[in-house]
Structure formats: structure tokens, C-alpha cells
């Protein structure tokens, strides 16, 4: 019998649901995030937000700004600043791809979610996205409603 490793499901800490409505999501990347000990402890509590966050890929480094990770209550004077810029851990060619998309095509890099992977490491899912206009948002909402209604009709008939 082969040893079967237990696969722990991804624990999503924070999700940016608004991003899928406001942007057309393109290529998605998984990035590590450089955190301090108190930030990791606070993330395990599951109270972070990435709704108003954004990523900048200047000077060869990808940095995520405006992500709110609350202070860890049991930490004393060694606590972290809740909205400090945090470095994302990506390969050089991935950073170059992000930077080219932002510079050349007018795209934006938005974080979609923060989660812990199977090894228990904190990861950020970021995506290259293009902003939607108001009429595009209405069209996307109509398509989503129709897909939901279509599923309901198929379920009721079948």
C-alpha cells in the first residue's frame, strides 16, 4: 500500500469578490508574500481584506499595497503595521510579464485572494485585469443572471 498524503484544502483568508465584477480577469498568478510572524498569526485568524488593494511591479519587485492585515492581539510591542506595503515573491519573468502588461496594454494587476496552500504557506492570487466600463458591467450582470435562470430552468424541467 502506498502512503497517501493528506491534502489539506486551501484555507481562503480574504477574497476580492468585487474584482471579478469591476475587471475582466486575464492571466492569473500565484505569488508568495513576505510576512512577519505576527502577520501570519493574524492571517490564520482570517480577518484580512484585499478589497481595495493593488499591486505595483516597479523596480524589478512586485509589491502589494493597501492590504489590511489587522494587528495580532496577543503580540506586544513587536506587532506589525496593518496596511504596510508587502513584497510579493515571484520569478523575474513573471514580474516582467506583469510590468509589460501594465505599461504597454494599460492593464492593472489586482489581488484576487489570500489563502494558505497545502503546505501551510500564505499565498496571494493576483491577476492581470482590464477595467470594465459601466455598460460592460451591466452586460456582465445580465449574462450572469441569464446563466443562473438557465440553470434553474434546466433543473426544474429535468
Automatic annotation (TrEMBL):
<keyword id="KW-0963">Cytoplasm</keyword>
<dbReference type="InterPro" id="IPR000037">
    <property type="entry name" value="SsrA-bd_prot"/>
</dbReference>
<feature type="region of interest" description="Disordered">
    <location>
        <begin position="134"/>
        <end position="158"/>
    </location>
</feature>
<protein>
    <recommendedName>
        <fullName>SsrA-binding protein</fullName>
    </recommendedName>
</protein>
<feature type="compositionally biased region" description="Basic and acidic residues">
    <location>
        <begin position="136"/>
        <end position="158"/>
    </location>
</feature>
<dbReference type="InterPro" id="IPR020081">
    <property type="entry name" value="SsrA-bd_prot_CS"/>
</dbReference>
<keyword id="KW-0694">RNA-binding</keyword>
<dbReference type="InterPro" id="IPR023620">
    <property type="entry name" value="SmpB"/>
</dbReference>
<comment type="similarity">
    <text>Belongs to the SmpB family.</text>
</comment>
<comment type="function">
    <text>Required for rescue of stalled ribosomes mediated by trans-translation. Binds to transfer-messenger RNA (tmRNA), required for stable association of tmRNA with ribosomes. tmRNA and SmpB together mimic tRNA shape, replacing the anticodon stem-loop with SmpB. tmRNA is encoded by the ssrA gene; the 2 termini fold to resemble tRNA(Ala) and it encodes a 'tag peptide', a short internal open reading frame. During trans-translation Ala-aminoacylated tmRNA acts like a tRNA, entering the A-site of stalled ribosomes, displacing the stalled mRNA.</text>
</comment>
<dbReference type="Pfam" id="PF01668">
    <property type="entry name" value="SmpB"/>
</dbReference>
Amino acid at each position: 500500500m502506498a502512503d497517501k498524503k493528506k491534502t489539506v484544502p486551501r484555507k481562503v483568508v480574504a477574497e476580492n469578490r468585487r474584482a471579478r465584477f469591476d475587471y475582466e480577469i486575464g492571466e492569473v498568478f500565484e505569488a508568495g508574500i513576505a510576512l512577519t510572524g505576527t502577520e501570519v498569526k493574524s492571517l490564520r485568524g482570517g480577518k484580512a481584506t484585499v478589497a481595495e488593494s493593488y499591486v505595483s511591479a516597479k523596480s524589478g519587485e512586485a509589491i502589494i499595497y493597501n492590504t489590511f492585515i489587522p494587528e495580532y492581539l496577543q503580540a506586544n510591542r513587536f506587532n506589525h503595521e496593518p496596511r504596510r506595503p508587502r513584497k510579493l515573491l515571484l520569478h523575474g519573468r513573471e514580474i516582467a510579464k506583469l510590468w509589460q502588461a501594465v505599461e504597454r496594454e494599460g492593464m492593472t494587476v489586482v489581488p484576487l485572494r489570500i489563502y494558505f496552500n497545502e503546505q501551510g504557506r500564505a499565498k496571494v492570487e493576483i491577476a492581470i485585469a482590464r477595467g470594465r466600463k459601466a455598460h460592460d458591467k451591466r452586460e456582465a450582470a445580465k449574462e450572469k443572471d441569464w446563466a443562473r435562470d438557465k440553470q434553474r430552468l434546466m433543473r426544474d424541467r429535468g
